[in-house]
């Protein structure tokens, strides 16, 4: 190839490295043009030599596809975004269902730094921002092509990681923002994108990584699969999916979607009004006092989304091919003569420790009645019973198919984005589909409410239940009994409380006991702000407080006893697991031990 003066080729800008940006240089219809741009540009010859090799390799493909100006391009520019999603999702759903094989703690410990192909598209992938930079635009182009979210006649020329806006919301994953440049601009392609990846396995986030990758598995797999297969059929607004995959060897994963254009991403200022269609927030977990309207309005809207998703599933409008929970009692490990939860002595020990934490260590953060002996006795007894009936309660929540449907298991306000139209009507979209699947609807309703303000949950719970029952039927679901839904919600809240009890030791690692002595309320930054880039501590304290209040103020002990007598004894014909001997807890010389 002959190289002549740059002026012979008209005005061209040379390819450059711009700060921390990854810049492939401009793409040309002729490979020689890009090579010339590199050679005449700035930089050492050692780098130019490498860039020339890359440009010639890309250019051969680029020239071929550019000259085609394919029918795919024409279709992409004329079809609606929804039509393109329909085509992509139908193709994905038509494929053989991909399954997840359980992994262990040792798998994560030994393999979390390893690169491995994803289960959906077969590509090795990055799972950090730096990894994305290192793999570069060529890899991202290949990924978007594999996912069918970008035409094969288009490609990415630049990746720029957002350096100033850090995403620290949530406690199940790390997140970052980045921007891309396409060779051909399209109304269907977003340049500002969002990535979600597994937490690193290090001291600060080790327990969170094991929680999501092992204890909650296949939560991350299901989120990726939901975007991959259901983006077009879900009857709710969601951000556009671009790519997502997970390794069943390492549990590393990456999800890439459009970036939601939050108006207040640098900080919420309630004194500054927003325009119609400006997206509020982003909101954070357990900080509903920042909502721009009445809490009840937001949660009724979220309940509507739950009802739409569940109703669509019931009427067959959502192509879910990943099964549903078993209905046979044998699958749950029921045992009429013994506790079916964890070791009863270990459970009791955790509960006693939690009582001391609430009544002594962090008493300023909990209702005054947690210090009363009558409450402590009632709570300890009820939670011990809850543990004894653990498997039976799980089975009960899944037994009746009317109360089981497809749903979002974590639809707090921080997993939605809100805006108002010109008439002031609140609208929303949702994201974070971790664990999305077929499950107990009242269970999911509680996990939507558990990060809300306890005052409004206690005051509005009956209204929320009535709204869900009515809207579920409107959208295609069967008629539910509100009293059964309420019983399931209260018992689910008690189960959630048990999870938070187990998380107290981890909370004390993030905020040592001596610090709590001077913490006067939940707005103290030591417990109110994110720690190590995650909301785990704030969430634990908030949910533990909320579940304690629901237990006491909505009579959780009485509700559990009613379930035992009305469901377990009368409907199922079993004998109640009533006394200490049945729980296998023996009191001897003031100690509790496993007999």
What does this protein structure show overall?
By secondary structure, the protein is an alpha+beta fold. Helices cover 46% and strands 10% of the residues. It has a 6-stranded antiparallel beta sheet, sandwiched between helices. A hairpin with a 2-residue loop joins strand 11 (585-588) and strand 12.
Q: What attributes characterize this protein structure?
A:
alpha+beta; six-stranded antiparallel beta sheet; two-stranded antiparallel sheet; 46% helix; globular; disordered C terminus
Strand-residue proportion: 5-15%
Terminal residue distance: 86 Å
Provide the helix percentage: 40-55%
Count of alpha and pi helical runs: 20
Largest sheet: 6 strands, antiparallel
Low-confidence blocks of residues: 1-31, 60-71, 586-595
- Mean of residue pLDDT values: 86
Beta strand count: 12
Radius of gyration: 27 Å
Sequence of strands across the biggest β-sheet: 1-2-3-4-6-5
Structural class, by secondary structure, is: alpha+beta
């Amino acid at each position: 190839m002959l190289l002549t003066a740059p002026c012979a080729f008209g005005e061209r800008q040379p390819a450059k490295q711009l700060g921390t940006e990854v810049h492939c240089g401009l793409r040309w219809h002729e490979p020689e043009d890009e090579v010339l741009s590199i050679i005449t540009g700035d930089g050492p010859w050692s780098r130019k030599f490498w860039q020339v090799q890359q440009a010639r390799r890309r250019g051969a493909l680029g020239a071929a596809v550019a000259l085609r100006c394919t029918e795919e391009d024409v279709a992409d520019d004329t079809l609606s975004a929804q039509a393109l999603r329909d085509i992509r999702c139908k193709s994905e759903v038509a494929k053989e269902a991909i399954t997840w094989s359980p992994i262990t703690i040792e798998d994560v410990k030994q393999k979390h730094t390893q690169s491995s192909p994803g289960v959906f598209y077969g590509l090795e992938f990055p799972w950090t921002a730096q990894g994305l930079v290192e793999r570069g635009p060529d890899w991202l182009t290949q990924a978007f092509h594999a996912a069918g979210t970008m035409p094969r006649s288009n490609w990415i020329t630049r990746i720029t990681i957002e350096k100033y806006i850090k995403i620290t919301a949530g406690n199940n994953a790390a997140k970052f923002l980045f921007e891309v440049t396409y060779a051909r601009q399209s109304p269907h392609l977003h340049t500002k994108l969002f990535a979600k990846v597994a937490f690193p396995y290090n001291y600060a986030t080790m327990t969170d990584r094991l929680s999501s990758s092992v204890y909650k598995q296949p939560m991350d797999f299901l989120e990726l699969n939901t975007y991959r297969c259901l983006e077009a059929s879900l009857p709710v607004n969601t951000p556009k999916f671009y790519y997502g995959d997970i390794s069943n060897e390492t549990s590393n994963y990456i999800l890439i979607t459009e970036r939601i254009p939050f108006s207040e991403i640098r900080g919420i200022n309630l004194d500054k009004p927003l325009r119609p269609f400006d997206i509020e927030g982003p909101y954070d977990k357990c900080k509903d006092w920042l909502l721009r309207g009445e809490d009840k309005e937001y949660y009724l809207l979220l309940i509507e989304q739950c009802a739409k998703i569940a109703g669509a599933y019931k009427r067959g409008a959502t192509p879910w091919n990943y099964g549903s929970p078993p209905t046979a009692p044998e699958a749950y490990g029921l045992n009429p003569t013994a506790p079916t939860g964890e070791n009863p002595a270990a459970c009791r020990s955790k509960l006693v420790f939690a009582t001391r934490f609430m009544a002594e260590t962090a008493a300023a953060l909990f209702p005054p009645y947690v210090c009363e002996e009558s409450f402590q006795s009632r709570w300890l007894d009820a939670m011990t019973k809850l543990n004894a009936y653990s498997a039976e309660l799980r089975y009960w929540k899944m037994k009746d198919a009317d109360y089981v449907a497809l749903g979002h298991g974590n639809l707090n306000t921080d997993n939605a984005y809100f805006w108002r139209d010109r008439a002031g009507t609140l609208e929303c979209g949702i994201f974070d589909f971790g664990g999305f699947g077929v499950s107990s609807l009242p269970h999911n309703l509680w996990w939507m409410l558990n990060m809300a303000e306890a005052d409004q949950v206690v005051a509005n719970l009956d209204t929320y239940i009535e709204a869900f029952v009515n809207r579920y039927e409107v959208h295609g679901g069967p008629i539910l009994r509100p009293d059964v839904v309420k019983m399931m919600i209260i018992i689910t809240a008690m189960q959630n409380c048990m999870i938070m009890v187990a998380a107290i030791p981890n909370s004390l690692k993030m905020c040592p006991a001596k610090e709590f002595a001077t913490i006067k309320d939940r707005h103290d930054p030591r417990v109110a702000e994110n720690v190590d880039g995650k909301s785990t501590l704030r969430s634990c304290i908030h949910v533990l407080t909320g579940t304690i209040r629901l237990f006491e103020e909505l009579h959780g002990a009485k509700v559990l006893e009613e379930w035992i007598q009305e469901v377990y004894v009368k409907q199922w014909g079993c004998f109640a697991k009533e006394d200490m001997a049945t729980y296998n807890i023996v009191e001897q010389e003031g100690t509790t031990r496993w007999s």
